[in-house]
Amino acid sequence: MSEYVRSRIRSVRSVRSVRTPKTVRKAAPRATAVAAVLATLATLGAAFGGTADAVASGPRPAADVYVAPNGDDRAPGTRTAPVRTPERARDLVRKRVPHQSGDLTVHLAPGTYRLSRPLVLDSRDSGGNGHRVIWQGGEGTVFSGGRAVRGWRPVKGGAGLWSAPAPAGLDNTRQLYVDGVRAQRARGPIPVNLTATATGYTASADTLARWRNPSDIEFVYPSGEALWNIQQYGLGPWTEPRCPIGSTTGTTVTMAQPCWDNSTRRVEFPDIPGRSINMVGPAKLTNGALPGYVENAFEVLDQPGEWYLDRHTRTVYYRPRSGENPRTADVEAPVLEKLVDGRGTGRAPLHDIALRGIEFSYATWLTPSSPEGFSEVQAGYTVTGPEGWKTQGLCEYTPGGTCPYASWTKMPGNVAISHGRDIEFSDDAFTHLGAAGLELGTGTKNATVRGNVFTDISGNGMEIGGVDAPQPGSDADLTREVSVTNNHLYALPREYHGGVAILNGYTRDNTIAHNQIDHVAYSAISMGWGGWPDKIGKPATANVSRDNKVADNLIFDYMQALDDGAGVYTQGLTGSSLDNGEKITGNVIHDGWGLGRTVYTDNGCTYVTVQGNVLYGAQANVLSAHVDYRDDLGNNDPTRIVGNYWEQGDPDGNDKGVVTSGNHILADPSEAPADIVAAAGLEPRYRGLLGRTFAADSVPEAPTRVGDFAADGSAYVTWNPSYVEGGDPVTSYTVTASGGSRSVSTTIPAADFKRTAYAVVRGLDNGTPYTVTVTARNKAGVSEVSLPAAPVTPTAGGPGALPGAPTGVKANADATAATLSWTPPKTTGDTPVTGYRITVSDGRTVTVTGRDVLVSQPRAKGMLRVIGKLRPATAYTFSVAALTATGTGPSADVSVTTSNR
């Protein structure tokens, strides 16, 4: 019997039994106590795969370490006497590694491990003698940085509002979860008119100054393409900056610094007016630097599912959703900003570590709540520090600029590894997180990320490497040989909508393959960096990237919130030749919502091969032609686009180095090669990941960016869909127009909305202003109500002005299909374009609708559609006309002859 067991028995012997009958009081305590201890130890042994007999006979000494939520950190960490905390287990591992003769396993029993601080790992926690240290969890093993919020009571006079005291240690957080479902931090429309000033705003009334805790209020600047009456507030359609208020006095709103300057100011080239020296996005916040909505204010806590933390009174407020009972629900507030912090160094790396079967949950990130705010540039990178806007990452382009170019501040990971070698994350879950999920930072080598789920994460799903050292001073700083395979990433980012599922910086020999990425707010995979100098005729930043592969992934329903991205977005130099440049092969990418591409080779993108992919359902498939400014020859960046099945339909040719060859027009997804489709996404043994859940089923997230315009007795309404569906698909949307003394609603099936991208509310009163909102429904119920669109007023109209004819109509055909391309009419008449009508000379009429129709028109972006079921070697004429609420405009014609088979 171990000394730990003997000590537990001695402690039980000392406890007086006050309820045992006098006749057995002398004999019973010892037997009962011993039996109780042995029963407890037997239970713990069973949790680790042991048996009661094994426990009773006592454990044999072993190198492995055992941990259980009800263990004791004074215990030796054996199967029958586990420790309680991962931190104590780490300390035991440090003592045993020098004597390691095989893999050393830390066995984590099922249950929640509430971390009081991050689990810090360094070189002392590495494997030894050629063996690994394996942290092995299982079903229900959770590393949590949260604190349970208890003691809920209805707020008197609060009409459905509940409150609870903030638990010990909760000073601030940006997230709250109820039974694993993320609640919405209180948000609402700006209650006053704002006029931008040098330091913030002048308000039309002192409303904000009279609100509770005005310095906790946050202004949000949502972007995306401007559309109908939807404004674009951010620093480019791919961003969503956030800035806290610094102070309010009367009608003067002073924004927090440095967030305000870093989000509204840019250094411009003196000889290129309007071109910022950072070369990314506009020179300042568009729309007069006005915010889109307000968040984290008690006064807008008005919908079920919303919450607010009053940091001054240490009170948490929540409005329960239908069916929720805060008294019995598991309400979690994240406190820690890191759960696991791997701190290797170049000279002393963390190595030979595996973390398996662990759910990493309930961590936050508080920098956006500080005066730094969230001044986003792209993909979660931000401008930070005093006067960061005029120095950070601007390098040789401005006096005092820091190098290298574009080395802005990366969003941190709630699980992070720096200088890690031979690292493995498998069968894990990264969920309910407030920053990026997993960060494999500088110097990570030979890492494996396999069979994991990433969901419900505020920012980037995972990050590989960085962009602060394009030319590492030593091999130790190089990030390379990272394998990311067979993971499911979905329903993210939840808070910083410009984030991506997988972010890869300057790296080598990485493979991103067989992942499924779906229902994401912006781009799915973002590769490379530093290509923007081509905007001023300069070459992309030289970097170490080469031999990176993006292969056999299944990507769909991406760019659900923002625009100007892609299923695979890649940028900058990717190698030194087409042989070692980036390879994008065998992927199936379809159904992007926003304006963008399936594969986007952006500024300075050199030596990329796009081959053997299936690409459809986007405004364009592959953007490739950029001038190669590494010399003065006038060529384009070398690119190969070969053997894809796509809708773009570009003919074979060589456009100054952009080689297009052997691609096939895809008229219908069912015509894609079965072998490519079958191989894309999770391999068979990993498809069970699609059924893993980490929260109770819930209603969808509310639709966003609602926009509308008025017509005769009606309103046309569009919005961004609910990409966070709550466990069941969205089945329908309901649009409500409220004006005068009545409201009018219409419901559209989700499948119809995906096809048309708008709904029409009819039966409205002309001359009456209407405010429009949208809700989403799934099996669990109805979402929160969206933020409203700007009011519109229907008016009686006569025939009205019709749109002009589409421009630049072209056609390219193979034997059985033709790709038509065009740009919107130069004039749209009295109402915006909502679709196009294509008339085929064989008698068919095809109506073209969709989100790309709507977002293409304000910036005159190109459209394309495929017409299939054509006969070989036959001449066809296609007539394309624009459709509006007013009527059908004149057509533009194009003719083409299909090829022989």
From TrEMBL:
Residues 66-89 are annotated as: Disordered. The keyword Cell membrane does not apply. Keywords: Carbohydrate metabolism, Glycosidase, Hydrolase, Polysaccharide degradation. Pfam families: Beta_helix (PF13229), fn3 (PF00041), GH141_M (PF21231). The keyword Hydrolase applies. SUPFAM superfamilies: Fibronectin type III, Pectin lyase-like. Coiled coil: none annotated. CDD domains: FN3. InterPro entries: Beta_helix, FN3_dom, FN3_sf, GH141_ins, Ig-like_fold, PbH1, Pectin_lyas_fold, Pectin_lyase_fold/virulence. Residues 699-798, 802-901 form the Fibronectin type-III domain. This is Fibronectin type III domain-containing protein. It comes from Streptomyces endocoffeicus.
